[in-house]
Specification:
Residues 15-194 form the CT398-like coiled coil hairpin domain. The protein has helices at 6-30, 33-89, 94-175, 180-193, 214-222, 242-245; strands spanning 197-201, 204-205, 229-230, 237-239. 78% of the residues lie in helices and 5% in strands.
Length: 246
């Protein structure tokens, strides 16, 4: 295209400002620092959950081991009680009494050894249960921290979404009625360059921030006011008169 109303070209700068603001909001949404916090806390929760599986398995195994140790002690205790009852009954021979006495001594030694095992398992179980309780408390705290961080992130994103919606609405109003050819060129350049229009302020293109040489500036100045000018350096639509319009 070669021309578009001067007012439309100037208004296109406002459209660009709103598009830039929309990009900034989108970037702020995608890169919000609270996302990293939520991710870190989620990773911590996952790590603690893995540790909890291991700790709960260890506690379960120790409880089974303790139950077996207690059963072994009870079995020996019951056997010793039966032998002692026979000895105390006075209804067995001297030879049997001697045999039972020897067995009672062996059972006493066996019972003492099994009780030592039982105590060791009980102490180990107590330590494992303490570690499990500590891990559960830590996991609960991490989950609470993650929930709080997620809520904070959701609130921040909702605010950014509201800002984005306001910008979209304002952009639609600002762009309404603009020259269709001008808008089509702008959209094409914006897709290619990130921004499609820039103001000419003094000797400088505000898009690429480069100074125009004197001959190029003179050529542009001599063109009709509604002529659509492109920056030779960056290719953006170059809007003249922005300073005066503001």
């Amino acid at each position: 295209m070669t021309s578009a109303p001067v007012a439309d070209q100037l208004r296109l700068l406002d459209v660009q400002a709103l598009d830039t603001r929309a990009q900034q909001i989108a970037h702020a949404r995608a890169s919000h620092p609270q996302r990293a916090t939520v991710q870190e806390l989620s990773a911590r929760v996952a790590q603690l959950d893995e540790q909890l599986v291991v700790a709960r398995t260890a506690v379960s195994d120790a409880r089974r081991e303790l139950a077996k140790a207690e059963a072994d002690v009870e079995l020996v205790r019951s056997r010793a009680a039966r032998d002692q009852t026979r000895v105390d009954s006075g209804q067995v021979s001297v030879k049997d009494v001697q045999a039972l006495s020897g067995e009672l001594e062996a059972l006493a030694r066996r019972k003492a050894a099994l009780e030592d095992v039982e105590i060791e398992v009980m102490e180990r179980l107590e330590a494992l249960e303490g570690e499990l309780a500590s891990l559960e408390a830590e996991a609960d705290a991490a989950r609470a921290d993650r929930a709080a961080a997620s809520a904070e992130l959701d609130s921040a994103l909702a605010d950014l979404d509201a800002q984005a919606a306001a910008v979209v609405a304002e952009r639609a109003t600002t762009a309404e009625g603009l020259d269709a050819g001008l808008v089509a060129l702008y959209d094409k350049l914006r897709a290619q360059l990130g921004s499609g229009v820039a103001a000419l302020r003094g000797h400088r293109c505000e898009g690429c921030r480069l100074e125009l040489n004197a001959s190029e500036l003179a050529r542009i100045t001599a063109l009709p006011a509604d002529e659509v000018v492109r920056c030779d350096e960056c290719g953006r639509i170059l809007v003249r008169g922005a300073d005066a319009a503001r």
